[in-house]
Amino acid sequence: MNDHNLAKPVAAIISTGDELVTGRTVDTNATFIAERLGAIGIEVCSVITVGDYPDRIVWAWQHSLAHADVVISTGGLGPTADDLTSESVARVAGTQLKLDQSEAERIRQHFQKVGRPMPENNLKQALFPIGAEIVPNKLGTAAGYRLVVPMNERRPVAVVLPGVPREMKAMLEDQVIPWLLQQAPEDRCTLSRTFQTFGMSESALDEALEGAIDPSKGRLSFRASFPQVSVRVTVTDTRTDAEHRLDGLAQIVRERLGAAVIAEGETTMEEVVGKLLREHRRTLTVAESCSGGLVGNRITNVPGSSDYFVGGVIAYSNELKQRLLGVQERTLTTHGAVSEETAREMALGARRATGADLGIATTGIAGPDGGTAEKPVGTVAIALAADGLDDGVRSRVYRLWGNREWVKLLTSQVALDWVRRYLLGLDPLTSVFGMRGRKR
Amino acid sequence: MNDHNLAKPVAAIISTGDELVTGRTVDTNATFIAERLGAIGIEVCSVITVGDYPDRIVWAWQHSLAHADVVISTGGLGPTADDLTSESVARVAGTQLKLDQSEAERIRQHFQKVGRPMPENNLKQALFPIGAEIVPNKLGTAAGYRLVVPMNERRPVAVVLPGVPREMKAMLEDQVIPWLLQQAPEDRCTLSRTFQTFGMSESALDEALEGAIDPSKGRLSFRASFPQVSVRVTVTDTRTDAEHRLDGLAQIVRERLGAAVIAEGETTMEEVVGKLLREHRRTLTVAESCSGGLVGNRITNVPGSSDYFVGGVIAYSNELKQRLLGVQERTLTTHGAVSEETAREMALGARRATGADLGIATTGIAGPDGGTAEKPVGTVAIALAADGLDDGVRSRVYRLWGNREWVKLLTSQVALDWVRRYLLGLDPLTSVFGMRGRKR
Predict the structure, then answer these.
(1) Does residue B239 sit at the A interface (CB-CB below 8 Å)?
(2) Same domain, yes or no, for A301 and A376?
(3) Do A300 and B408 touch (CB under 8 A)?
(4) Residues with Cβ within 8 Å of residue B193, at least 6 apart in sequence
(5) What separation, in Å, do the N-terminal and C-terminal C-alpha atoms of chain A show?
(6) How far is CA A163 from CA A170, A437, B81, B119, in A?
């Protein structure tokens, strides 16, 4: 295999697991790793996915190590008989597995801490190929490792990580990426900055940023992580020049994308909203119909959210909209449950019932049933009640799309974006996502 | 590469495209194809993904054809210079590309129909390796094809499809799958059954199933999709024998795992709970503190959940626990918000406020802050109020683990499992996950 510039390191990815070759799980790990490697200037030349069979795993490793300088694998590090990655790596490297006492102890302690007996087979997770440098896993029992695997004249490195996305991501970000950056020639460094955006599609972002960055100065990459799209700017240069240039390019991105940028770094919408509520010393309540608790769930995913989130009402039935939020029966019969009028009364009612400063309400048709010609699936009304708005409340009907979970997720995202825009002093209606018949 | 029964056809998948190895796009095509092949008993032994480089595409084809009977590829059939699949396939097959007049005509007509001039390079899409059987594309300009590629003694078949998911899916379903079924020896088939479990770890399941299934008769595989673990049993045999044997093995799994099996197939806990509520004609409400809306969110992910879910209260602050659920101030001051006593009053209060048949309550410390020596992070009280329970309510304190989102997710899962067990006529306290301490 050729086609790559030999001055730059080249990576290969291996994903292991029956669930990946039987169509039960989409391999998002490989995508995540590829994007992170690309951002530090390492090209991925192949991704090989195999099921849990020793010969196939060995095959994948042999062919990946044959052309890549670094091979990153995920999966097959569990405690069960079908977890075969370490045996296979040892076989390819011509070495043996050996018990690491301190990892064994860590696993024992983990089970002690959670108060469950440790199944004896869990000790398998403390077996590593001789020569491996352990990559600790702070979030689970499966530690990873790095291992140099001599191949003819070359010394490619195997990086072995668990398949649980949360654990893999933390280990990649905190340990593997920094290690890879250390391997680069000393005077070169690769820096990147990420912007989280909401309200523009990938192609709209692409257009907005067209010509913004000279390809010889920096690279732009996008990653859609519905409903947000992250934009990353990467530069490679000497340390001083790289930092300076990155600052300049980041400023261009900020200017071009405006309020569509919700945060820099890996921040979530709910974290941004939480930070703004805290800064402005406001409290929030929710009145959720079609989102069914998702807005509250997202807000409370942020540590410390009890400082600004009081709770709220999941008013799924019309009866509960009346009983707990004081929505008028006439409003429901005249305008329907999915209407700006109902959403407004829900938002105002939630403020009244809880005493919070801001009340955000959602009511819509998440589907797949319940749509009509006038109000098809995806029709969602959002309302925000807060001081300083005309009549104390703002509302709008959106036409969202996708399946039930997407409609719910988009609804929660738009609702949170309304709170964000309000706290930034913007009109919530500037949240452009899903607006029909309007361009900005 | 080995590990496969040569009596069965084995497939390999190739996904081609820079967007796949730079992390810009998740490869859902491979997952779709793998699932469809698995369903007709064709095992996928590898998926290889490469960018748009001729040598890499050739490499992927050579290695895939070397071990698979059928290689299905997507991508690289467009009209531009970086669409290189057909050149590469021709190179691997040792043949040339040749213009197909009728495809060229179809492409010309397509452009005429949409009223755009045809860029000359679009004719590239009418070039096929000599010997290819065209697989028409009704939805786009890129036709696919099948080609026998002699490899030593073997005659594996290359199936080349475009990368646009909509076009690929239609061609796979309407043309490739029927063709594959025609090729299969009539008497062989692979069948599998999946069980969703909750309450046992992957290794505890492994232990519980040890020796249950003779490896020559069937294969067990596990997939942890926190907080559930799915167990799959697969058999390959003649159709009659396979079905019969699978029934027997499935029965063994059911018996060994008991109530830890929440469903068969790809069902979620919330679907199981919804189905039971519907069958028993009961309605549900929630009173969520530490889960923050997650229980409601999960329940409402199921289409039609408005038939049995009325909504509820996210009682995040103590004030809301009192205002909306009628929790006594004395209970909060004496026992604390995270206590069985508070959970019980929340569950009873939610039933009272909403009129639902079942009320499930959660209150706990999701962390990372707020833990004490007596009530560390992960301490969660669950209560279920329903007819037929002593005093109309059952409760328990759990010690859960993990980070904030895990504690919330586990809390919601245990809460749903309580509803499930109650509706099955079991004591909710038989939900074994994370059990600690006293019973009540």
Answers:
(1) no
(2) yes
(3) yes
(4) B232, B233, B246, B249, B250, B264
(5) 47
(6) 12, 43, 36, 45
On whether residue B251 sits in a domain, the answer given is yes
Alpha helices (H) in A172-226, listed in sequence order: 177-183, 202-208
Are residues B55 and B85 located together in one domain of the fold? yes
- Residue B322's CB is within 10 A of a number of other CB atoms, namely 17
Same domain, B34 and B102: yes
Q: Is residue B2 part of a domain?
A: no
Q: How many domains is chain A built from?
A: 3
pLDDT of residue B199: 86
Q: Which of residues 39-58 of A touch B (CB under 8 A)?
A: 43-56
Percent of chain B with pLDDT over 70: 95
Using the beta-carbon criterion (under 8 Å), do A404 and B303 form an inter-chain contact?
Answer: yes
Q: Mind listing the pLDDT tens digit for each residue in B135-181?
A: 999 888 899 999 999 988 899 999 999 998 889 999 999 999 989 88
* B211 and B155 fall within a common domain: no
ipTM: 0.77
Give the predicted TM-score (pTM) of the model.
0.77
pLDDT over 70 at B5, yes or no: no
Per-residue pLDDT at A384 = 98
More confident residue, A374 or A433: A374
A5: confidence class by pLDDT, cuts 50, 70, 90: very low
Structural domain that includes position B249:
189-264
Which ranges of B40-161 would DSSP assign to H, the alpha helix? 54-65, 85-93, 101-114
- Please name the member of A18, A47, A319 whose beta carbon is closest to the beta carbon of B310: A319
**Given an 8 Å threshold on Cβ–Cβ distance, is A1 in contact with B59?**
yes
A-B CB pairs within 8 A amount to 318
